[in-house]
Structure of Methanethiol oxidase:
Amino acid sequence: MKRLVARPLLAGLVVAALAGVAPLAQADETCLSPYTAALVKGQEAYLHVWALGEKGLGDESDKLVTIDVDPKSKTYGKVVNTVSVGGRGEAHHMGFTDDRKYLWAGRLDDSKIFVFDVGTDPSNPKLVQTIDDLPDQTGYVGPHTFYAIPGRMVIGALSNTTHDGVTGLAVYNNKGEFLSAHPIPSEDGGDGYGYDIAINPKKNVILTSSFTGWNNYMRDLGQLVNDAEAMQNFGNTMVLWNLKSMQPEKIFAVPGAPLEIRWSLKEGDDWAITATALTSKLWLINRDDKNEWRAKEVGTIGDPSKIPLPVDISISADAKNLWVNTFMDGKTHLFDISDPEHPVQVYEKTTGKQVNMISQSWDGKRVYITSSLLANWDKKGADNEQVLRAYDWDGRDLNLKFEIDFFKEKLGRPHHMKFSGAAGKASP
């Protein structure tokens, strides 16, 4: 493994002034980096979907798919653009640069990163750069989370070049030039695994969560769950980092592979929430009565004995509600988290044969769901549904507005989503 040692001086220069550079964005819109400009607080115009190519389907390539989601448009609910990047490398997650002009998208298998211009014309993204030096620069593979800071992109990787999972964070500038690497702690209670990144600038903290290594996530799910030894190789920790120095400060025990992390966006709050994939729990990260950061189990999602596999979560802008998708049973859950220490499920609906990502509009009135988790983890046969579904939320029920069958349209497997407003400006 190469260059795994972080460069503290460079890291300090990179983020020394972050806490005061930009206001805390009250951003999926609600799940973006707090440094992301031009939030779409009104009606989003376009939905960008990062899709996995499927052998024997269309051009078989991973691609960025752009969908018109403005109900007033003549092409509402239709695909208006696709950009194929060549090959299949387990297309997974995306993230905007801080100015929201560019969208970085990664592949877990070959570790390539594709940069799309989505600012010039959001209806017609253009591939402008491919970055392929992450493994050589850091020893990490599987670029997963792309989290903007001013002029920089922090990338959370899922594994390493030996594929066992111990990994870290990498910092690039917006030109795509590597700056520094920061190993996730693998001693003193740390397990070294990585997954999501979430920053709270006002508290000068970064939270990271943990998943598993390439050897597991690129394996057939049925085989994996029957391999007792392999099932031990999942992350059971979260790490609290100092934002300015990019140094880890505290390790939390959070058993069961904690995945997405969402900070409360309510003014004055300083807590975040996550869900654990294998144990089906909600965990709260907040301060105890001694003002010390802690991680605390606060809720249960579905029936853990049936392993519903919680995947993506989306917090509302007012931090009163949390959407949770469970992959195995195809259900979408809504929790009242107005008291984050005692989440209560208030709604549940089967929204597919398998569901993964969930994104909501800033006002909470629209919810989008995609179906693909990982190519080797998706279900087989008739249950291998590959769709995007768009819903309106009226406060009582999710009402289907349109759906796109990605297999029928020869687009592949839909995974991560991001919104764009109209060209050149955010929605009002």
Summary: The longest helix spans residues 8-15. The two ends are 47 Å apart (CA to CA). The chain has a mean pLDDT of 92.
